[in-house]
Structure formats: structure tokens, C-alpha cells
User: What shape does this take?
Amino acid sequence: MFKKILFATSATEACDHAARVAFNMAKSYDAQICILHVLGVPTRGFSQVVLDVKTKEKVTLDDEYIAWVEEEIKVHYSKQIATVQNYEIKVVIGLPHREILRAARETAPDLIVMGGSTGDDEDSVYKKSMVGSTLQRVAKVAPCPLLVVNRPAASFWGGMSNVVFGTDFSKASDAAFRFALKLVKALDCELHIFHALDIGSMHLGRSMTQDEIESNLRESLRRIRGRYIPEMKDIPEYDFEVWEGIPYVEIVKYAREKHADLIIMAHHTQKASQEDTRLGSNIEQVIVRAGCPVISINR
Assistant: This one.
């Protein structure tokens, strides 16, 4: 299922939860893992003076300094590295999202693994959390699925038994469903299809009545039966539900109720109105709140 994994890390404790998942997956699937660390950004143009993302200090970049950083990463992940057969460490400079996407194009991984936050928002070289900047930009155009591990509770990747697929019936969700279907077939686990009817926003300037809510719930169930169930012939264990409420809250609650090992969602549910539109609020909030890893699919 996963033969090549790209793990993007700041090489700090903030990424340790994601590291645990990335290395566990590499071990489970006998996959190659590429540990990518973006050292920092040039202070100007093509200058050799770089602002180190970890130390926050300006350093003169040369082969000796890069080798030192690589050794630091090797030491930081020494226990995890000892559990895998095939790994490499890459240290590059530049803007994180650009370098992660560049590495993804060059190495063609089956999966990108990232932490949800640098945990260092106020003092960050990049001035933004990963959720607000790097993660959003990588998720938008990643050439493969992106797995995000944001919380300690989400850092265990063991035997997969329950996968939750959250849909809004968009084309992007159809792509996420195809990936979910492939994954549950390969791992022989249960698939739980879920849709949250959004009643947190106003519809045509007014709140929906209870009759309208119940009508929409029935319509959503009909759409699931017509859109996804015919594809479930080879899946012995599955179910589907529709709840009303605030989508990200209901998805997290549903995943907790199903003891989900993984949540799969589309990257965005609507066309972005601006080039730098933030990561769709629902999936962003799910990433922040979920007690299991979350996979974002954009194609």
C-alpha cells in the first residue's frame, strides 16, 4: 500500500507524534522513508547566510554545517531509524511548502507525513503555524495523499480496524472515497461513511426548520446509498450515517464513537476564491481536534 514515505519534519519535539506514525508505517509496510528537513531560508536572494529554523540564528551554509544538521537529525530519530531498513535524510533550504512539494515531485512518494503544528508560532522563522501556512499549501497541490498527525493521541499507527471517510458529496470527496476504498481493501478493515449536515450556518438568511433538517438528512442518506454503496461489494464490514450539526465537531465525535484509527477527507469542499485561501475550515479543525491521524486528499 505504501512503499515510499516522505516525512517532513522540523526535527523538534513538535514533530515527534508524526515521526512515530511515519516510522511505524515504514516498518509495517517495509517502505522507504525519506526524512526531509527544511533548514531555513536564505537571508536574501541566493545568499549563503541562512536563518536556521531551529536555532533562530543566522549561519553560513556550507557542506560541513549541512552534515552537522544531518547528524543531529540522525541522533534525534536514532531509535526510530533503528527500526527501518531503508531511509535517507535530506536537508534543504528554502520555504518549507515549496521544498516539501519539490521533494515530493522528485521522490514520488505514496504518502507525505507531516505534523499539524510547529508548536512555535510566536517565535517561528516562518511567522505562521504549519496549519495556517505550510500544511495548507502542501495539502492544496500535493501529488499524493497527505497524512497529518497533530496530537499525541493520534501518534499510534498499529493494526488498522476502523477507517472513517467524511464526505460532502463533492468531486474532491469522490477522490477521497476512492482512496479510502483502496486502503480498506488492502488493510482488510471496516469503513464508516459519514456526512455531517451543516446546520451551523444560515440558509437563505434563515435557520432551517426541523422538518427541513430531517428532509435533508433523508436526502443525504439517499445520496450515500446511491453514490457509494454500489462500490462496497468487496467490503464485508461497512456502515454509513448522517448527523446534523457543525461538520468538524460531528466528524470528530463520530470518529471517537467508532474508535477510528484513521480519518480520510477531501482537502477542500468548495472552490477557493483566492490563491491563498486557508485550508478548508472543516478539515483544519478535524486535524487539530481528532484523536487519530487524518489523511487529506486533493485529487
Remarks:
- The chain has two domains: 4-154, 162-297.
